[in-house]
Structure formats: C-alpha cells, structure tokens
Amino acid sequence: MTTADIIQTMLAPGLMISACGLLILGMNNKYSLVFNRIRLLDEEKRKIFRCGDGDPEHRQNVCAQLAELRVRARRERNAILSYSASVAAFVVTSLLIGLSDVQGLPGLSVLTILSFLVGMVLVLAGVLFAAQEALMGYDIICIDMKDG
C-alpha cells in the first residue's frame, strides 16, 4: 500500500469526525439555549415564591417546565457526550489504520473495524438522544401555551 493509499484510508474516519463536529456544534447551541431558559424560569419561580402571590396555575406551569427542561438538558448532554465519544473512537480508528499499515501489523484490522463500529453506534446513540430531546421541546411549549 502506498503512502497516498494509507492517508486516504485514514481520512475516511476523518469525515465522520467532521460530521460529528457539526452535530456537536448544533447540540451545544441547543444546550446553551435550554440552560438560558432554565435560568430564566428559575428566576421567575423565585420571584413567584418570594412574593407569595401569583396564579397557582402559573406557578405549577413554571415548575412543570423546569422539570421537563431538566430532562431535556440531560438528553442534550447525553447526545453531546455520545458524539464526543464517537469522535474519540474515529480518531482511534484512524490511528489504528496508520499503525496497521506503517508497522505492518495486520492483526490490528479487527481492532480497527471494532473501533469504527463503536464510533458508529455512539453516533446512533447521539442521534436517538437528540430525537428524544426534539420531541420534548414540543411538550414544553405545550405546557407554556397552557399558561397563556
């Protein structure tokens, strides 16, 4: 195998690293927005309980939203962690490809395939967490609309 072939083979996991980077970027943005919403609702909850007045239904809606947002944030965190772990698996895959070809260690091929598959499973897990989080976003808006 030529040097160009080795580099080309090592770049295949690099494409997955790039794709996961975009997924992480998108999820980090959503994660930040959810945290900001949690902070705003938490401040509103404190004001409501400090003043001791306010509509009980509004209080209940704020508390319900906070509980749902906590679960949503956890799913976003899990998606980000899954994507990040998949990047690590793809980096390991790339390194194993390089070691296998440069050092002539054919026994690493099983490990290489295994690390790539682990990366793909982690991407799938991240996508599933992100899908659950997207569904929850709609539920939280429904709670908010009941208050209006």
Write the layout of secondary structure elements.
Blueprint: H1 3-51, H2 56-103, H3 108-147
Helix pairs in contact: 1-2, 2-3
Q: If you had to describe this structure to a student in words, what would you say it looks like?
A:
93% of the residues lie in helices and 0% in strands. With 148 residues, the chain is mainly alpha-helical. Helix 1 packs antiparallel against helix 2 and helix 2 packs antiparallel against helix 3. It is rod-shaped and about 75 Å long.
Shape label: rod-shaped
Estimated helix fraction: over 70%
Mean pLDDT: 87
From the alpha carbons, calculate the radius of gyration and give it in angstroms: 22 Å
Please provide the count of β strands: 0
Largest sheet: none
Q: Helix and strand string, N-terminal first?
A: HHH
Number of helices: 3
| Sequence stretches where pLDDT stays below 50 over 5 or more residues | none
Structural class: mainly alpha
Distance between the termini: 67 Å
The percent range for strand residues is under 5%
Short description:
The protein has helices at 3-51, 56-103, 108-147.
Distinctive features:
148 residues, single chain, rod-shaped, mainly alpha, 3 helices
